[in-house]
Amino acid sequence: MRATLPLIFLLHVVLALSGSDFEERLIGWQGETYTHSHGPPDEWALTLDEPEGVPWVETVSWSPRVFVYHNFLSSAECRHIKRVAAPMMKQSSVVGQNGSSVLDTYRTSYGTFVKRRHDPVIERVLRRVAAWTKTPVENQEDLQVLRYGVGQKYGAHTDSLIDDSPRMATVLLYLHDTEEGGETAFTSPAASWLDPQLEERLGPFSECARGHVAFRPKKGDALMFWSIKPDGTHDPLSMHTGCPVVRGVKWTATSWVHTMPYNYEDYLKQGNPGKGGRGSGGDEEREGEPGACEDFHSQCSTWASSGECSKNPTYMNANCGRACRRCEPCDADQLSGTERLACINRNRKKLGFLVYDTTELEW
């Protein structure tokens, strides 16, 4: 009888604690399932509007480690990022052998970087990335926004860039629905789906992505994959490609997450209007249309006179196009609206900037 008393007492305790708090701690003991939380409530409260669907995370693969956050962004956030980036987008480059940026057919998109603290919307999105990756927001690089047209792609590559603070994770934000192609595909033969049925459910895929662990661009979704293993070594299975766009266009924003704060001094300045940050009028944060053929720095004429147009063409073409006579003036008081737009687009093409349809930014 004495031996059964503890068991009877324990049974009474269990029955007495069968309320919601106890059941929450023992999820599954009566057939319950986990309820999914889509992120810190304070972060979602700061969005421009609510995502169109229920935010939830799905594991795509453990080899490599790939996850999809469905409905990570709202449509308004997608539009905002495209509007901010579009005017400054130029043909994308790759890292050359000496570390410099060079143009290559390996990567044929247009892109630009948006400062991490460019505006409150960008900051909020990147704080959400930090919350998902469980890393400080200052460990991220500036946000790279890319646009791919039909046939444009990015060949197979890895993102880790092993150095003192390697990129340990990549978060790809999809800003636009792509009609066909444009998938992010992991090309290693050893890459494998968590569940083979995912390939059918997440597809159909273009020829480039077929047979690989892959994800189709869907507006508002985010794809996260890890470039280094938990032991800190490079993960070769993270090799991936941006498949050619077959129909439509593809817009993405990439946040690379490092193991340590990235370019921390610049990050701090971005939030200080008095030290070259947002709102200071500094060149890096200038607002304007490069195709309008304006000078964005008061010293442009002086620099042009001293030969900087040929010595430093990348900066001067983008910031002092008028002083360097790299473009034709498109003054609003001398041209009609249609004529000025045509003039701006001619300049954009000549200077290597993306020529785009503004209605595309509203999709």
UniProtKB/TrEMBL annotation:
InterPro entries, alphabetized: Oxoglu/Fe-dep_dioxygenase_dom, P4HA-like, Pro_4_hyd_alph, Pro_4_hyd_alph_FE2OG_OXY, ShKT_dom
Membrane topology designation: Single-pass type II membrane protein
Signal peptide range in chain numbering: 1-16
Catalytic activity line of the entry: L-prolyl-[collagen] + 2-oxoglutarate + O2 = trans-4-hydroxy-L-prolyl-[collagen] + succinate + CO2
Predominant location category: endoplasmic reticulum
Ranges for domain ShKT: 293-327
Keyword Metal-binding on entry: yes
GO molecular function (one): iron ion binding
EC number(s) on file: 1.14.11.2
Subcellular location: Endoplasmic reticulum membrane
Domain called Fe2OG dioxygenase: residue spans: 139-259
Cofactor(s) this protein cannot do without: L-ascorbate
GO annotations of cellular component type: endoplasmic reticulum membrane
Stated family: Belongs to the P4HA family.
UniProt protein name: procollagen-proline 4-dioxygenase
